[in-house]
Structures are given as C-alpha cells and as structure tokens.
TrEMBL record:
<keyword id="KW-0677">Repeat</keyword>
<dbReference type="GO" id="GO:0009055">
    <property type="term" value="F:electron transfer activity"/>
</dbReference>
<keyword id="KW-0004">4Fe-4S</keyword>
<comment type="function">
    <text>Ferredoxins are iron-sulfur proteins that transfer electrons in a wide variety of metabolic reactions.</text>
</comment>
<keyword id="KW-0408">Iron</keyword>
<feature type="domain" description="4Fe-4S ferredoxin-type">
    <location>
        <begin position="30"/>
        <end position="59"/>
    </location>
</feature>
<dbReference type="GO" id="GO:0046872">
    <property type="term" value="F:metal ion binding"/>
</dbReference>
<dbReference type="GO" id="GO:0051539">
    <property type="term" value="F:4 iron, 4 sulfur cluster binding"/>
</dbReference>
<feature type="domain" description="4Fe-4S ferredoxin-type">
    <location>
        <begin position="1"/>
        <end position="29"/>
    </location>
</feature>
<keyword id="KW-0249">Electron transport</keyword>
<protein>
    <recommendedName>
        <fullName>Ferredoxin</fullName>
    </recommendedName>
</protein>
<keyword id="KW-0479">Metal-binding</keyword>
<dbReference type="GO" id="GO:0051538">
    <property type="term" value="F:3 iron, 4 sulfur cluster binding"/>
</dbReference>
<keyword id="KW-0003">3Fe-4S</keyword>
<keyword id="KW-0813">Transport</keyword>
<keyword id="KW-0411">Iron-sulfur</keyword>
Amino acid sequence: PYVVTENCIACKYMDCVEVCPVECFYEGENMLVIHPDQCIDCGICERECPAAAIRPDTEAGLHAWLDLNRHYSGIW
Ligand code: SF4
C-alpha cells in the first residue's frame, strides 16, 4: 500500500482524498492516513499530494509510518 508520512502534518490540502478511487483515507490526530488493507496501490494520490507526503511502503524506513497509518485507520 501507500503510506502517508511526516509532510502531511499541518498540510491543509485534501487533493489525495478527492482522487482516491476506493476512499481509503482516514483522519489521524493531525494528519491523514491510508488504510493499508484497502489501498489498491494505484499511486494516484502520490502524484496529487502537494506536500510529497505519500510514499509506497516498499520504500525503506517507513515501518513506523505504516504502523501509524494502520492505527489511525482503525485497525488497531
Ligand atoms: Fe487510494 Fe490509490 Fe492512494 Fe491507495 S494509492 S490511497 S488506492 S489513491
């Protein structure tokens, strides 16, 4: 899946939410998150994010962010 990371904090844009075909964005405490089991890996949101906050989970060093996305999506 794709993962929302640090640059989303304090970002006011919602372009990602509007383009996601499966509506898998959720609100965390101070940022948006992506539900990792609902994301279909289309990559559209990554291109739309003006803060470059959205990255594929295959990128190194994103484990903690993936956990946080999972948590605020309501999985645990
Ligand atoms: Fe939604 Fe596609 Fe982004 Fe996943 S990669 S969150 S399915 S827009």
